[in-house]
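name: query_chain
kind: protein
chains: 1
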Amino acid sequence: MELGLTERLDSFVKSHSNRQLAAIPLALFLVSVIILGITFASTGSPVQLGMEFKGGTLVSVATTQSAESLEDQFSSYPIIDARETGSRVVMQFGPMSNEEQSQLAREVTSAYTGVEIKQIGPVYGASLQKQAVIAVLLSFIGMAAVIFLIFKTFVPSGTIVFTAMSDILIAAAFMNVAGIELSLGTVAALLMLIGYSVDSNILLTTRVLKRRGTVQENISNAMQTGITMTTTTLSALIVMYVVSTYSYVVIPSFSQITLLSDISIVLIFGLVADMTNTWLLNTSILRRYVTGSGQRRRKA
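structure:
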């Protein structure tokens, strides 16, 4: 599978100019920025915040009732979402007063069995939100510093940093489109994307700048290794997504594992974005950079 994909991608790269290759990932980046901007203008945050960051109550009950009937039953409370996961129904409520939370807990526990209730206050959620932002920024700054120390030249280093940022922004925009909220799990997925992006881009940049041979030969060799790495990871993530999301269809007693489902789908889309950023955008910039450097040396 990866061999056929590598051959097609290699042929595509060879048959298109640097501007044509860069146009696709840059267009994705621009569309993602627009989506994030629209979300920020409408909600005050570039991504839709989950309960962990804005506070609320999560109630899971074992019942044969449909999610719609439970949503109607508890409509007097600030219910945001209700969904069926196997033999259970999970309801998410927005922030409530202590009295409302206590009343909801009494009402649910008296009517249903196997009740699980998770509560997060808005103040604690805001604190988690700040910590998550700091974690992402520090990770990104640390990654950028290491990259510049390794290559010591602005264009290759800056391109790697930009592609990592683009991967995160594209994945975040996809979360808005797919209705996936920002949670501690999806923050972890976005942090993992930094590692995946840097891994593939360092591979490409090192092969092109530090290996003997023509630029295109080095790109092709790096592509064979990089595509194999990415498709292997994608295969594992697809399996994780299917099992965590749809296992209850085969075994009704299993519940949907929302955390793993969200992490896997965000990583899947982020890695697909990374393939375009690495093998189209970074390739086009490195190809032009190395060719231009060679021309300048010959003139000198």
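note: The chain has a mean pLDDT of 87.
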